[in-house]
């Protein structure tokens, strides 16, 4: 079944696009505001899971409990993608339904928010800190929160940027939340450009075309005119367009600068390389040129989320889902330095648990970021990059020795007496590379075997736990204990801190919305996953 798109009259398009080039700052409350859409601008997309809906998500089985005596080491790649949070918000607020389980990646929800971790002051581009608190999900458990704070770089101090806007203008983009929103998004980014920055604009549908040759950031009107002239028609030829984007980015390559492709699409590639692994491998090979690949996802009904997330990972970029203009401002204005400037590459985290103090553990999220233990010391293995000002948060739930855990006790495990220090829960190892360097740098620090009650935890840790609980509840996780929507809401409200852009207030609203949608019964997907 083909999706039907509402065609907007020219006057409506003019109203929607007018004012895009204004430099007026949106008030803080705008980030939490509900977007009003004209009735004739709403597209009736098929519901997820129906015959006419072709949205695609990677199937992710949540991490299982590990026994420290058997698997003491946990290794994973850092992740700063945030697309899952915004996409889930779209399901709740626009589609008015709970999201499919596979659309929920808990680590992207947690990392959607910036936390108030200490700023780095030494030679390393980030600072690592930890906090251990009583678990909100299980009486006998603790949660170790690992927080990474990258150094901030003022936008004015960023290196010169060579940006290639690669825009999908195929027929599938002819929808209000697609190409018109793409135009607004690129307009927001264009307004941030400096004279030393340059932009190339490429479009693709039935064919690819350079519609704007490399243009300096001080020629904003020229760039904006090219953006505003974009229109949608034809099929999608993603392969050749991506190859052209790399070619054009290479022509304008800035040594020691920012070189990045930003693709704006619904991910519906139906011409050219459509094999997922082939496309992913092509981009992974191209990242060796020093050009990053960032994906900006748009739309619903045919959205290929798996493609968008995985291509960004392969291209040493980041993945964002743009569901409204406020999200575009967050990604490309308020957090522009984080989006464009990389301060650490191939960031890997490895935690070795102490069998003398920890019996069992589970990592919350990062299911498609797991690495083999031997990958940690192998500098040839790719991992996630961290941008300026980014925070990365990871949560481990642990069962201390002597406490009842998730798993039944083993006959012989009980007889084995773990030897080691009683003062540490674990030892944290972190590897990273400075940009464009081949050799990694190792950081280490112990995690103390001390904890505090949840009520005495920092606001950052309590809020991260509330967001993790939200993700677990949406997926019907069996590890959420008896914690319900009201408990999550109470925890989130207890953790509220300064909220410059209203994102945490908005989260409270999403919790209430999810609770309302969950009031009747869980979704079919949740029942299937939990069984």
By CATH reckoning, the class of the largest domain would read Mainly Beta
What is the CATH architecture descriptor of the largest domain?
A: Sandwich
Strand content: 15-25%
Could you give me the name of the CATH homologous superfamily of the largest domain?
A: Gamma-adaptin ear (GAE) domain
What is the domain total for the residues?
A: 2
How many separate helices? 15
The counted number of beta strands is 16
What order do the strands of the largest sheet run in, or round the barrel if closed?
7-6-5-8-9-10
**Outline:** globular
List keywords for this structure.
16 strands; alpha+beta; six-stranded mixed sheet; vWFA_dom_sf; Uncharacterised_YfbK_N; disordered C terminus; VWA domain-containing protein; Immunoglobulin-like; disordered N terminus; five-stranded antiparallel sheet; CLCR; Rossmann fold; 531 residues
């Amino acid at each position: 079944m083909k999706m039907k798109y509402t065609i907007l009259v020219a006057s409506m398009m003019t109203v929607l696009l007018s004012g895009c080039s204004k430099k007026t700052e949106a008030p803080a409350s705008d980030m939490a505001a509900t977007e009003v859409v004209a009735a004739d601008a709403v597209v009736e997309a098929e519901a997820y899971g129906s015959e006419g809906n072709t949205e695609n998500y990677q199937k992710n089985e949540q991490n299982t409990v590990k026994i420290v005596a058997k698997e003491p080491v946990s290794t994973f790649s850092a992740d700063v993608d945030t697309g899952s949070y915004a996409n889930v918000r779209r399901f709740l607020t626009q589609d008015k339904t709970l999201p499919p389980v596979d659309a929920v990646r808990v680590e992207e929800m947690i990392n959607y928010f910036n936390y108030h971790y200490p700023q780095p002051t030494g030679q390393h581009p980030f600072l690592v800190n930890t906090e251990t608190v009583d678990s909100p999900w299980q009486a006998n458990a603790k949660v170790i929160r690992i927080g990474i704070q990258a150094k901030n770089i003022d936008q004015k101090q960023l290196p010169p940027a060579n940006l290639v806007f690669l825009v999908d203008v195929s027929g599938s983009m002819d929808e209000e939340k697609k190409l018109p929103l793409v135009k607004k998004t690129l307009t927001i980014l264009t307004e941030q450009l400096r004279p030393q920055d340059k932009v190339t604009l490429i479009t693709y549908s039935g064919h690819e075309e350079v519609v704007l040759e490399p243009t300096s950031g001080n020629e904003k009107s020229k760039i904006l005119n090219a953006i505003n002239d974009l229109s949608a028609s034809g099929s999608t030829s993603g392969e050749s367009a991506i190859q052209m984007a790399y070619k054009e980015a290479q022509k304008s390559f800035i040594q020691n600068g920012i070189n990045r492709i930003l693709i704006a699409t619904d991910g519906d590639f139906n011409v050219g390389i459509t094999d997922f692994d082939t496309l992913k491998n092509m981009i992974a090979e191209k990242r060796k040129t020093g050009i990053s690949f960032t994906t900006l996802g748009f739309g619903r009904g045919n959205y290929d989320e798996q493609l968008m997330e995985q291509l960004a990972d392969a291209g040493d970029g980041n993945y964002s889902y743009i569901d409204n203009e406020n999200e575009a401002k967050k990604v490309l204005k308020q957090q522009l330095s984080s989006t464009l400037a990389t301060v650490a590459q191939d960031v890997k985290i490895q935690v070795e648990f102490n069998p003398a103090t920890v019996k069992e553990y589970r990592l919350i999220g990062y299911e498609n970021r797991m690495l083999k233990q031997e990958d940690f010391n192998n500098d040839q293995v790719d991992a996630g990059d961290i941008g300026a000002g980014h925070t990365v948060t990871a949560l481990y739930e642990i069962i201390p020795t002597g406490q009842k855990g998730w798993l039944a006790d083993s006959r012989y495990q009980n007889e084995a007496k773990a030897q080691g220090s009683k003062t540490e829960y674990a030892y944290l190892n972190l590897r990273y590379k400075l940009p464009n360097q081949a050799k990694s740098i190792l950081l280490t620090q112990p995690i103390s075997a001390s904890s505090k009650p949840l009520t005495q935890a920092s606001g950052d840790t309590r809020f991260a736990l509330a967001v993790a609980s939200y993700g677990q509840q949406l997926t019907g996780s069996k590890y959420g204990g008896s914690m319900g929507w009201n408990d999550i809401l109470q925890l989130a409200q207890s953790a509220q801190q300064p909220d410059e852009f209203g994102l945490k207030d908005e989260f409270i609203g999403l919790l209430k919305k999810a609770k309302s949608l969950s009031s009747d019964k869980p979704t079919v997907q949740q029942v299937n996953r939990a069984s």
